[in-house]
């Protein structure tokens, strides 16, 4: 049996940020992680001798909480390669190289896309990402799908297809008819604006030298043997006075407070004794993960650069709807990373592995030419098969769910609190949001959990 002030369930960025902050304030913490590694949805791994970012990797200028953490942990960043032309493939399959932020579409459609971005940002300006359910006309916006809402704003379907891409395919990874306009506005507001989301040079600005998983690894190192791997929590017994967490390996942790720092779809993997209140049972059923396949294709060199291409490519009509130069810092090899989301990803997994690879590489070849068909390493990050994640990138509400349940998604249940990047306001879905909400929930726990006499502060102030 372990006695601790706080038991943290999940050793991702949120859980480890909170645990370090709690320990720094003088509380004792125990972290229980189901996987055999820390990092959650950040995972840097060697595949066939090549280092790949299996999970989250990007750093943007507005992600100040993450940038502060990287600096405090001594981690450096480098710019994503972006010199040269980008590539766009239209609905007819026509490939065009271009520069700048505007897709090479007919002038009227290009202008309509710019207008739609401005209109969406007028709505975004009224959204507080911490309380989107308080947005003017929130109920109506939450009852309308993002696709249907865009169709009311413009009759140009090529324009709306392209605007959909930046939220549906690139962020929420669900079909645009499956989530609300309000959920889309929250996604944009959490990044500062919709204009930021459509600007790849902003939202996908930098990467971490050595990989993003180092954030969790270094935070875990500071906690030492307080972090237990291969320890999925099966039962959480609770009263108003405290909790008992029962995990695999015979681990039993008695604590005053519990933080459940895992994706919402995993809450039900824990048996709560007594059961959670009805409100939590209901709202948790309305949060579901998106689905995206992150495809890595490694070549003996970044051949596209020799053709004057940046590696950046887009098309709402391709299997791979967006792709980038993802070459590792200091590597002579070249890596392309592409993304296949929502129904396209579903369709790919009806195929054999060989057929799936052929479809993906064929799509990359539409952007970069036939040399893209011959990678030396090919790998698919399929988070949908991960038992302790079950999708990617994050969870979002179904139609009407954000207004109906949003205000209660972080409500404490006795000594139990819930936090993850899925529930963040600013930085929603991103590592930055995981850091922010980890800090916030730690402060909430500290407000109701006084440090016992004789305990002193130690560790990081992350």
Automatic annotation (TrEMBL):
It is an enzyme of class 1 (oxidoreductase). Its cofactor is FAD. This is NAD(P)/FAD-dependent oxidoreductase. It holds the Pfam family Amino_oxidase. GO terms for molecular function: oxidoreductase activity. The keyword Aminoacyl-tRNA synthetase does not apply. Residues 14-446 form the Amine oxidase domain. The keyword Transcription regulation does not apply. Its EC number is 1.-.-.-. Belongs to the flavin monoamine oxidase family. Keywords: Oxidoreductase.
């Amino acid at each position: 049996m372990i006695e601790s002030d706080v038991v943290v369930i999940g050793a991702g960025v949120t859980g480890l940020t909170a645990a370090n902050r709690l320990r720094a304030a003088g509380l004792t913490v125990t972290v229980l992680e189901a996987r055999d590694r820390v990092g959650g949805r950040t995972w840097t791994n060697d595949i066939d001798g090549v280092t790949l970012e299996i999970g989250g990797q990007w750093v943007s200028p507005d992600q100040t909480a993450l940038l502060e953490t990287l600096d405090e942990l001594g981690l450096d960043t480098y710019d994503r390669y972006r010199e040269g032309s980008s590539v766009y493939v239209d609905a007819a399959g026509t490939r065009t190289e271009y520069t700048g932020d505007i897709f090479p579409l007919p002038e009227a459609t290009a202008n309509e896309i710019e207008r739609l971005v401005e209109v969406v940002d007028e709505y975004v300006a009224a959204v507080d990402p911490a309380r989107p359910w308080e947005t003017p006309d929130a109920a109506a916006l939450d009852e309308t799908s993002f696709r249907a809402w865009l169709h009311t704003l413009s009759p140009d379907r090529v324009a709306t297809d392209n605007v959909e891409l930046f939220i549906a395919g690139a962020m929420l990874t669900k079909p645009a008819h499956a989530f609300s306009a309000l959920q889309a506005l929250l996604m944009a507001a959490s990044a500062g604006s919709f204009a930021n989301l459509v600007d790849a040079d902003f939202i996908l600005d930098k990467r971490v030298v050595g990989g993003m998983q180092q954030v969790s690894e270094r935070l875990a190192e500071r906690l030492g043997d307080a972090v237990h791997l291969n320890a999925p929590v099966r039962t959480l017994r609770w009263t108003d006075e405290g909790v008992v967490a029962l995990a695999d390996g015979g681990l039993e942790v008695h604590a005053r407070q519990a933080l459940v720092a895992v994706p919402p779809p995993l809450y039900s993997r824990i048996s709560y004794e007594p059961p959670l209140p009805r409100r939590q049972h209901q709202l948790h059923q309305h949060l579901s993960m998106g689905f995206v396949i992150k495809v890595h294709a490694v070549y003996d060199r970044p051949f596209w650069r020799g053709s004057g291409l940046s590696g950046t490519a887009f098309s709402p009509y391709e299997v791979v709807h967006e792709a980038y130069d993802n070459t590792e810092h200091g590597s002579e090899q070249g890596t392309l990373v592409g993304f296949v989301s929502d129904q396209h990803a579903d369709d790919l997994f009806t195929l054999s592995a060989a057929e799936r690879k052929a479809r993906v590489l064929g799509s990359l070849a539409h952007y970069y030419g036939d040399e893209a068909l011959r990678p030396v390493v090919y790998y698919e990050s399929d988070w949908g098969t991960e038992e302790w994640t079950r999708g990617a990138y994050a969870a979002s509400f179904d139609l009407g769910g954000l207004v109906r349940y949003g205000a209660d998604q972080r409500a404490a249940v006795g000594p139990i609190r819930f936090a993850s990047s899925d529930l963040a306001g600013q930085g929603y879905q991103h590592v930055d949001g995981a850091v922010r909400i980890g800090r916030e929930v730690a402060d909430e726990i500290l407000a109701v959990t006084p440090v016992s006499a004789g305990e002193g502060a130690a560790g990081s102030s992350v």
